[in-house]
Amino acid sequence: MKKIQYIVMAAALMLVVSSCEKVSPLGVLVSGTGVEDRVKMSNLYYMEHKGDLKILTAFKDDEYTFLVGSDSHLTTDDSRMREMLQIALDNDDLLMAHLGDIADTKAEYYITLDNLIDEYRWKYAKTHFVETFVGDKDDPDDISDPGSYHYTDSLTEETYNVDNVPYPFYPVVGNHDITHNGWALWSNIFHSSFYDVFVLADFTGDDIVCDHFMVRSVRSRLN
Questions:
Q1: What is the dihedral of CA 138, 142, 144, 148, to 10 degrees?
Q2: The pTM is what?
Protein backbone atom coordinates (compact mmCIF):
# COMPACT_ATOMS: atom_id res chain seq x y z
CA MET A 1 0.00 0.00 0.00
CA LYS A 2 1.39 3.38 -1.00
CA LYS A 3 1.48 6.25 1.43
CA ILE A 4 2.43 9.74 0.32
CA GLN A 5 3.46 12.21 3.01
CA TYR A 6 2.86 15.87 2.35
CA ILE A 7 4.91 18.09 3.73
CA VAL A 8 -13.89 28.68 22.61
CA MET A 9 -15.19 29.07 24.61
CA ALA A 10 -15.77 28.71 28.21
CA ALA A 11 -12.23 27.96 29.20
CA ALA A 12 -11.02 30.98 27.32
CA LEU A 13 -13.26 33.28 29.33
CA MET A 14 -12.53 31.60 32.65
CA LEU A 15 -8.80 31.82 32.03
CA VAL A 16 -9.02 35.59 32.29
CA VAL A 17 -10.27 35.48 35.85
CA SER A 18 -8.32 32.56 37.28
CA SER A 19 -4.72 31.42 37.14
CA CYS A 20 -4.03 28.50 39.42
CA GLU A 21 -6.72 25.82 39.14
CA LYS A 22 -6.48 22.46 37.37
CA VAL A 23 -9.37 20.38 36.14
CA SER A 24 -10.10 17.27 34.08
CA PRO A 25 -8.86 16.74 30.52
CA LEU A 26 -12.21 18.05 29.28
CA GLY A 27 -10.47 21.40 29.39
CA VAL A 28 -13.03 23.47 31.27
CA LEU A 29 -10.16 25.23 32.97
CA VAL A 30 -6.57 24.09 33.03
CA SER A 31 -4.04 26.71 33.95
CA GLY A 32 -0.71 26.66 35.70
CA THR A 33 0.00 23.14 34.41
CA GLY A 34 3.40 21.59 33.87
CA VAL A 35 4.59 18.85 31.54
CA GLU A 36 3.60 16.06 33.92
CA ASP A 37 0.08 17.50 34.26
CA ARG A 38 -0.42 17.77 30.53
CA VAL A 39 0.83 14.24 29.88
CA LYS A 40 -1.42 12.79 32.57
CA MET A 41 -4.47 14.76 31.40
CA SER A 42 -3.88 13.76 27.78
CA ASN A 43 -3.44 10.12 28.75
CA LEU A 44 -6.55 10.12 30.94
CA TYR A 45 -8.74 11.47 28.14
CA TYR A 46 -7.13 9.06 25.67
CA MET A 47 -7.77 6.04 27.92
CA GLU A 48 -11.37 7.07 28.60
CA HIS A 49 -12.13 7.42 24.88
CA LYS A 50 -10.23 4.51 23.34
CA GLY A 51 -13.55 2.88 22.53
CA ASP A 52 -14.56 5.86 20.38
CA LEU A 53 -11.93 5.09 17.74
CA LYS A 54 -13.17 4.97 14.17
CA ILE A 55 -11.28 3.02 11.53
CA LEU A 56 -10.57 5.18 8.50
CA THR A 57 -11.02 3.76 5.02
CA ALA A 58 -9.22 4.91 1.89
CA PHE A 59 -11.39 6.94 -0.46
CA LYS A 60 -9.97 5.26 -3.57
CA ASP A 61 -9.06 1.57 -3.75
CA ASP A 62 -6.30 0.71 -1.26
CA GLU A 63 -4.18 3.83 -1.68
CA TYR A 64 -4.31 6.88 0.50
CA THR A 65 -2.33 9.98 1.34
CA PHE A 66 -1.95 11.92 4.56
CA LEU A 67 -0.83 15.44 5.33
CA VAL A 68 1.59 16.59 8.02
CA GLY A 69 1.93 20.24 9.01
CA SER A 70 3.15 22.36 11.90
CA ASP A 71 3.84 25.89 13.10
CA SER A 72 0.74 27.55 11.70
CA HIS A 73 0.91 30.08 14.59
CA LEU A 74 -2.65 31.18 13.98
CA THR A 75 -3.58 34.65 15.19
CA THR A 76 -6.47 36.73 13.84
CA ASP A 77 -5.05 35.71 10.45
CA ASP A 78 -6.01 32.09 9.81
CA SER A 79 -4.46 31.82 6.34
CA ARG A 80 -1.67 29.31 7.14
CA MET A 81 -3.99 26.95 8.98
CA ARG A 82 -6.68 27.41 6.35
CA GLU A 83 -4.17 26.53 3.64
CA MET A 84 -3.33 23.22 5.31
CA LEU A 85 -6.98 22.24 5.75
CA GLN A 86 -7.82 23.23 2.19
CA ILE A 87 -4.87 21.28 0.72
CA ALA A 88 -6.02 18.17 2.58
CA LEU A 89 -9.57 18.64 1.30
CA ASP A 90 -8.47 19.25 -2.29
CA ASN A 91 -6.10 16.26 -2.30
CA ASP A 92 -8.51 13.86 -0.56
CA ASP A 93 -5.93 13.26 2.16
CA LEU A 94 -7.27 10.63 4.51
CA LEU A 95 -5.92 12.23 7.68
CA MET A 96 -3.97 15.23 8.91
CA ALA A 97 -1.45 15.59 11.72
CA HIS A 98 -0.39 18.99 13.02
CA LEU A 99 2.85 18.72 14.97
CA GLY A 100 2.74 21.69 17.30
CA ASP A 101 2.42 25.47 17.54
CA ILE A 102 -1.02 25.63 16.01
CA ALA A 103 -1.94 29.03 17.47
CA ASP A 104 -0.50 31.80 19.55
CA THR A 105 -1.90 31.99 23.06
CA LYS A 106 -4.83 34.36 23.12
CA ALA A 107 -8.48 33.49 23.61
CA GLU A 108 -9.52 35.29 20.43
CA TYR A 109 -7.02 33.24 18.38
CA TYR A 110 -8.45 29.99 19.67
CA ILE A 111 -11.98 31.15 18.93
CA THR A 112 -10.80 31.81 15.36
CA LEU A 113 -9.21 28.34 15.28
CA ASP A 114 -12.33 26.65 16.63
CA ASN A 115 -14.50 28.38 14.03
CA LEU A 116 -12.07 27.41 11.25
CA ILE A 117 -12.11 23.74 12.24
CA ASP A 118 -15.93 23.82 12.37
CA GLU A 119 -15.97 25.32 8.87
CA TYR A 120 -13.74 22.58 7.47
CA ARG A 121 -15.50 19.82 9.36
CA TRP A 122 -18.63 20.86 7.47
CA LYS A 123 -16.77 20.95 4.14
CA TYR A 124 -15.31 17.53 4.89
CA ALA A 125 -18.75 16.16 5.75
CA LYS A 126 -20.26 17.53 2.54
CA THR A 127 -17.45 15.95 0.52
CA HIS A 128 -17.16 12.51 2.09
CA PHE A 129 -20.57 11.77 3.65
CA VAL A 130 -24.10 11.47 2.28
CA GLU A 131 -25.90 14.71 3.11
CA THR A 132 -29.57 14.81 4.12
CA PHE A 133 -31.40 18.08 4.70
CA VAL A 134 -33.63 17.88 7.81
CA GLY A 135 -34.60 21.52 8.17
CA ASP A 136 -37.36 23.66 6.72
CA LYS A 137 -36.81 23.88 2.97
CA ASP A 138 -38.78 27.14 2.88
CA ASP A 139 -36.54 28.81 5.48
CA PRO A 140 -33.38 30.38 3.96
CA ASP A 141 -31.73 30.40 7.39
CA ASP A 142 -32.21 26.65 7.72
CA ILE A 143 -30.73 26.04 4.30
CA SER A 144 -27.52 27.85 5.24
CA ASP A 145 -27.36 26.37 8.75
CA PRO A 146 -24.98 23.36 9.13
CA GLY A 147 -27.22 22.08 11.92
CA SER A 148 -30.02 21.53 9.41
CA TYR A 149 -28.20 18.61 7.82
CA HIS A 150 -27.39 15.04 8.76
CA TYR A 151 -24.40 13.19 7.35
CA THR A 152 -24.26 9.44 6.80
CA ASP A 153 -21.13 7.34 6.39
CA SER A 154 -21.89 5.21 3.35
CA LEU A 155 -19.64 2.39 4.61
CA THR A 156 -20.82 2.06 8.21
CA GLU A 157 -24.26 3.65 7.65
CA GLU A 158 -23.75 5.71 10.81
CA THR A 159 -25.42 9.11 10.78
CA TYR A 160 -23.98 12.24 12.40
CA ASN A 161 -24.86 15.83 13.08
CA VAL A 162 -22.26 18.18 11.65
CA ASP A 163 -20.86 18.81 15.15
CA ASN A 164 -19.88 15.17 15.66
CA VAL A 165 -18.81 14.15 12.16
CA PRO A 166 -15.47 12.34 12.68
CA TYR A 167 -12.98 14.84 11.27
CA PRO A 168 -9.52 13.20 10.86
CA PHE A 169 -7.45 16.12 12.15
CA TYR A 170 -4.93 15.22 14.87
CA PRO A 171 -2.96 18.07 16.43
CA VAL A 172 -0.34 17.72 19.14
CA VAL A 173 0.56 20.50 21.51
CA GLY A 174 3.73 22.56 20.98
CA ASN A 175 5.66 24.94 23.19
CA HIS A 176 3.98 28.04 21.76
CA ASP A 177 0.56 26.48 22.34
CA ILE A 178 1.11 26.32 26.10
CA THR A 179 2.82 29.61 26.92
CA HIS A 180 0.85 31.92 29.22
CA ASN A 181 -1.23 28.98 30.49
CA GLY A 182 -2.37 28.19 26.94
CA TRP A 183 -3.14 24.56 27.77
CA ALA A 184 -6.54 25.74 29.03
CA LEU A 185 -7.36 27.08 25.57
CA TRP A 186 -5.77 24.23 23.63
CA SER A 187 -7.32 21.39 25.64
CA ASN A 188 -10.77 22.97 25.51
CA ILE A 189 -10.86 22.22 21.78
CA PHE A 190 -8.70 19.10 21.41
CA HIS A 191 -8.86 17.55 24.92
CA SER A 192 -5.74 15.43 24.46
CA SER A 193 -2.38 15.39 22.72
CA PHE A 194 -2.42 11.58 22.24
CA TYR A 195 -4.09 9.83 19.31
CA ASP A 196 -4.27 6.34 17.84
CA VAL A 197 -5.40 6.34 14.21
CA PHE A 198 -6.24 3.13 12.36
CA VAL A 199 -6.56 2.87 8.59
CA LEU A 200 -8.11 -0.24 7.07
CA ALA A 201 -5.46 -2.00 4.98
CA ASP A 202 -7.03 -5.39 4.28
CA PHE A 203 -9.56 -7.85 5.59
CA THR A 204 -10.04 -11.54 5.02
CA GLY A 205 -12.87 -13.35 6.72
CA ASP A 206 -12.99 -12.19 10.31
CA ASP A 207 -9.47 -10.75 10.24
CA ILE A 208 -8.97 -7.02 9.80
CA VAL A 209 -5.52 -5.59 9.06
CA CYS A 210 -4.93 -1.91 9.77
CA ASP A 211 -2.16 0.62 9.41
CA HIS A 212 -1.65 2.13 12.85
CA PHE A 213 -0.59 5.76 13.31
CA MET A 214 0.38 6.90 16.79
CA VAL A 215 0.36 10.69 17.13
CA ARG A 216 1.91 11.83 20.40
CA SER A 217 3.41 14.82 22.14
CA VAL A 218 5.30 13.39 25.09
CA ARG A 219 8.20 14.78 27.06
CA SER A 220 7.69 12.69 30.15
CA ARG A 221 7.26 9.00 30.97
CA LEU A 222 4.08 8.04 32.78
CA ASN A 223 4.39 6.02 35.94
A1: -130
A2: 0.78
